[in-house]
């Protein structure tokens, strides 16, 4: 399997420190999440109320363009948002478990973006959405959609 949960945890810690948000609860923290034909690692956390109006911090497997990954060990960080004109999803640029600064993003990531190694636009993830919906229903951590 991917074994990328440690970098997901590191990314979540970096996001919390960089943006001043706190984790209020864990939705899922598992390597084998998904549908019967595809199992992916996910770390999804419910965020405490914050000034950015972010609700969920999602570290998801990088699936790349056309739902396949050009980099099987990379992770994307997406936050779900509240409020008008926020678009619902925001991508936080990262590369191999490290949150990127604006300078790093500007100078180092052109090749990664062009070759689809890095998520550049926020897009819905059906597995992520199902995990969040199940968590909101029960209020309990969700380890698998297969249970």
Notes on the structure:
This protein has 147 residues and is of the alpha+beta class. It is 27% helix and 31% strand. It has 4 helices and 7 strands, in the order αβββββββααα. The protein has helices at 5-19, 102-108, 110-114, 126-138, and strands spanning 23-35, 38-47, 54-61, 75-81, 89-92, 94-95, 98-99. It has a 5-stranded antiparallel beta sheet. A two-stranded antiparallel ribbon has the order 6-7. The radius of gyration is 15 Å and the shape is globular. Mean pLDDT is 78; it is low at 66-70.
Query: What coarse outline follows from CA principal-axis ratios?
Result: globular
Distance between the termini: 19 Å
- Rg over CA atoms, rounded to whole Å, is 15 Å
| Class based on secondary structure composition and strand pairing | alpha+beta
Question: How many helix segments?
Answer: 4
Strand order of the largest sheet: 1-2-3-4-5
Give the H and E element order.
HEEEEEEEHHH
The residue ranges in which pLDDT falls below 50 over 5 or more consecutive positions are 66-70
Tell me the β content.
25-35%
Task: Calculate the mean pLDDT score and round it.
Answer: 78
How is the main sheet built? 5 strands, antiparallel
The helix fraction, in percent, is: 25-40%
Oligomer: single chain
* Total beta-strand segments: 7
